[in-house]
Structures are given as structure tokens and as C-alpha cells.
Design goal:
The protein has 133 residues and is mostly helical. It folds into two domains: 33 residues, no CATH class; 92 residues, Arc Repressor Mutant, subunit A (Orthogonal Bundle). It has seven helices and three strands, in the order αααβαααββα. The chain has a three-stranded antiparallel beta sheet. β2 and β3 form a beta hairpin. α3 packs across α4, α3 packs across α5 and α3 packs across α6. It is elongated, with a radius of gyration of 20 Å.
Length: 133
């Protein structure tokens, strides 16, 4: 059995003394169970997120006719993305943790500097063509 990143971080927090040692056998059992059952959602969602990010870029460039610096409506991009099976899978994964799938993909593009937003409009940056390749 391999440990995922979340399980390793939990074990490190025990080692560093950030989590108090359990007093009873039941508390110890519960703590070990929580470590073994921890799931790394980021690693599971990453392939779906990458596909969604690439589709956002492809949709932008198809509507802007390949030109950068052109503003298009977010709703046009979202309507194209909703039709994709991988987006719906990603949507189910995100809804399990209470997040909106389109907002997660959209904000990750903003955070990485590929996208600029102005209210209901969006604009891709020069570097965003890397997402399509």
C-alpha cells in the first residue's frame, strides 16, 4: 500500500508534535483509521482539472478567432464546458467538497496568470497557448 500526500502530511504532523498523542486505545485506533482513510483529492482531480483548463483556453481561442486581448463572456465558455463528460465528472468531485467546478478551473487559470477577469468577461494572456499544446 502506498501513502498519498495527505497521509504523509498527517504522519509528519504527528512526528512534529502538532497533534497530541492519543490517551486511550480507542483514540489511537480512530487516529490511525483517519490517516489510512485520508484521500488526496488534489491528485485525483488534477487530470480532470487540466482537461477543463485546456478546454477553457480552446473555447476562448475559437470564439476570439485566435486573437489575444479579446474579451468574451464567461457564459459562452461555461456552456461549451458543461457538454464535456470530464467536466461533469470533475463537477461531481468538486460538489462532494462543496466547490463549484467551473469556479475551481477558472480561478486556477487566474492564479497561474493565464486568465484575466473583468466581471462577466474574460481574457486569456499570451502564455495561455501553452495550455492547448
Amino acid at each position: 500500500m502506498e501513502l498519498n500526500n495527505v497521509q504523509i502530511k498527517m504522519m509528519d504532523s504527528v512526528l512534529n508534535g502538532e497533534i497530541d498523542l492519543p490517551k486511550t486505545h480507542k483514540e489511537y485506533h480512530d487516529h490511525i483509521s483517519s490517516i489510512l482513510l485520508a484521500v488526496d483529492t488534489d491528485a485525483i482531480e488534477k487530470p480532470f482539472l487540466d482537461k477543463c483548463r485546456a478546454q477553457i483556453a480552446r473555447t476562448y481561442f475559437s470564439y476570439s478567432e485566435g486573437k489575444q486581448g479579446v474579451d468574451i463572456y464567461l457564459s459562452r465558455v461555461k456552456n461549451q464546458l458543461v457538454r464535456r463528460v470530464y467536466f461533469n465528472t470533475f463537477k461531481v468531485m468538486c460538489s462532494a467538497r462543496g466547490a463549484d467546478a467551473f469556479q475551481v478551473a477558472y480561478r486556477s487559470l487566474i492564479k497561474d496568470g493565464y486568465l484575466k477577469s473583468d466581471g462577466l468577461m474574460m481574457r486569456m494572456t499570451e502564455d495561455s497557448k501553452k495550455l492547448i499544446k
